[in-house]
C-alpha cells in the first residue's frame, strides 16, 4: 500500500502522538509498504527516517502530488489544515485516529468543523474505549504501542529507589499532587521526577518549602534507553493525572520496565494498564497517599501475567491492526469490526 500520513506534529518533535506515529510509520515500512508524511513539524537538522519522506505542510503542490499518489490517508488526530485536499478527491480513503479528548473541548467553529469531518472519514480509530465514546462516529478501538525494543527489564540495573514520575511538568499531569502526597509519608522514601515544562521552577520551589529536597530529586528530561534504565531503578511508577488522558504510553513503558503501577482513573489511562495497576480516583490525594504507603509496605513489585498483556501492545502487533483497517477500507480484505484488545 501507499500510505500518506498527515499529522500536525511528528518527528523530531517530542510527545505521545509524535512518538507513536513515528513507530507506526517505521513498522508500516518494515512490512513492505510505502510511507510519506506531511507535517507542520520543522525538520531542522534531524536525521532522516529510513525510507520515509517527510514534507512540510507549507509545500502545497507537493501535498497534492502525495495526496494523488496515496492509496490511503492516515491522520493521527483530525486536522483542518489537511481538509482542503479532499476537495480534489472526496472519495479518497482516509482513516482518522483519535488520541485524546480534544473534540470535547468547547464548541467553537474549529471544533464543530472537526466533529463534522470525522463523520465523513472512511474509518475512525480510537486509542481507548474512553475516547471512542466521545468521537461522535463509529470507531474501532486500537490501543497504543510502546517501544518494546527499548523499554524492558535491564538485568544489570539495581531497583533501589521507590517512586518515579515521568511526564511534562504541567498542571494536568498532577506532579504537584504527587508532591503533596509525599508530604504525608512519615517514613523514608525517594521520588524521582523525570520531565521538563512550565511548572518546573514552581515544583522545585515547593519541594524546598516542604523540606523534601533530600527525598525528591528532579532529573530533567530523559528519553530512550536512558529513561528505560531510570525506570528499572525504581520500584513504583506513579501517573497521577488530574485530567482525562486518551491512553498513556508512559504507563506501558513503566510496566515493561518492571515497575509497580499506581495510576489515576483518568480517561483511558486505566485501560493502558488493565488489571496490572493500583488505581485511585482522579484528584484524590488521600487515595494516592494510601496506595503509595501500600507500595512501600510491599516492596519489590510483582510482574506476574504482564508478558501476554504487553505482547498485545508491541509495535508489530499494533501496526498490524492499523494495516488491517487500511486494507479493509481499500477492499483488500473482508470488512470486519475490530474489537479492543481484551485485558488479560
TrEMBL record:
<feature type="domain" description="Glycosyl transferase family 1">
    <location>
        <begin position="152"/>
        <end position="276"/>
    </location>
</feature>
<dbReference type="InterPro" id="IPR050194">
    <property type="entry name" value="Glycosyltransferase_grp1"/>
</dbReference>
<protein>
    <submittedName>
        <fullName>Glycosyl transferase family 1</fullName>
    </submittedName>
</protein>
<feature type="domain" description="Glycosyltransferase subfamily 4-like N-terminal">
    <location>
        <begin position="14"/>
        <end position="147"/>
    </location>
</feature>
<dbReference type="InterPro" id="IPR028098">
    <property type="entry name" value="Glyco_trans_4-like_N"/>
</dbReference>
<dbReference type="GO" id="GO:0016757">
    <property type="term" value="F:glycosyltransferase activity"/>
</dbReference>
<keyword id="KW-0808">Transferase</keyword>
<dbReference type="InterPro" id="IPR001296">
    <property type="entry name" value="Glyco_trans_1"/>
</dbReference>
<dbReference type="Pfam" id="PF00534">
    <property type="entry name" value="Glycos_transf_1"/>
</dbReference>
<dbReference type="Pfam" id="PF13439">
    <property type="entry name" value="Glyco_transf_4"/>
</dbReference>
